# Entry
Amino acid sequence: MTRRPAPAVLPPSLRPWLGLIAALAALVVVVIGVLYAGHSEPGRVDRWFVSPTADSVRPPWRRVALFLDFLGNPAGSVMLVVALVGGCLLLRRPRAAVLVVAGVVVTVGTATLLKHLVGRTIHGPGNLSYPSGHTAFLTALALMVAMLATGRLGLGRTAGTSLVLGAGLVAGAAMGWAQVALGAHYPTDVLGGWCTALAVIPATAWLVDRTADRLVDGMADAGRLERR
# Structure
């Protein structure tokens, strides 16, 4: 009896466009990082959107911003990841569960590394701000959920790409607004965080698929050798 191969977490129909978008997003992350390396003040682009003293959102929107911010904090992010991993396992999609964990680890790790490399600060020394880890995290989750939905629903290239980018844009915009409204990040930090997720998640999904396929092929080869 031949076992059906597990569905890819990065649907083949999405690979060309998401690969191109990931490359462009990585370029944006690098360019903004170079422009604002070592800075501690908002740049000209940042001042187009907010004043140097943001943190002016008032209730009830402040509560919304604080809730979104909580989702990117350790407690909130663990809750989201555990819920998504549990959902993947209930749907019998272990490869998707691996993607959720790997995608979050790689995205947050990349954002943290970039913060130390770029050295941009907000509200004093030590408060590294570029790129926004909160924005990168929530965008990454949205991208992964949308990719898994694309595969499960069998969407084509146009519909699938639109779903993935739309989900990433909504999640990134929501968390980005919260971070800027609370004065935790500059707008360009948010853009950098959004692009970090766009660059990292397609590559991580491709690596998960490639590694899983190789493991399955290796197990199949071992089984054939045992039967000889």
In short: The mean pLDDT is 90.
